[in-house]
Specification:
9 helices, mainly alpha, single chain
Amino acid sequence: MLEIIKSGGVLMIPIILGSIVAMGIVIERFWSLRRRRIVPENLVAQIWHWHNNKQINADVLKNIQEGSALGRILASGLINLNQQREIMKESIEETGRHVAHELERFLNTLGTIALISPLLGLLGTVIGMIQVFDGILVEGVGKPNALAGGISVALITTAAGLIVAIPAMMFHRYFRGKIDALVVEMEQEALKMVEIMHGDRKSEKL
């Protein structure tokens, strides 16, 4: 394996570094985007219970806010509970935008790796073919061993770039879809809480 990497030339270094970074991002996003960590079950029902029992205070709000991404959104609405419905919704929407942005952390980097890895491989192909043609000019076409080094660089860097890019793109799209689904679910839960708190929805339908 080490010999293959060496045969790929200097462009194997950024490709390998990109693969390491991409792997780290994938592991971190799988851990951070767990559903129970983002959208805990029955949180709105629990908040409604605390509200009915007049148990919502600064400490409870802090625990809600720090407990999950959804909790952070709902807490921003609870802070403005005594304000008009529109003010409460605006506060929730503003916090929701910040939360959604944080959920997308590192995805741009992962997408960039998926984009540039095959380009680095293509650059390796071009460099390898230049070496091949230089070898032809010097040695002619009768000595295949003299051309093998350039061909090796061309093929190995291309393959390495694609090996990194394909899973990086797959995970990028997977996480993007997962985040979109989580954001929609958080929006629904936040709207549910606003409607319940303002009497537009019965708590039995929680």
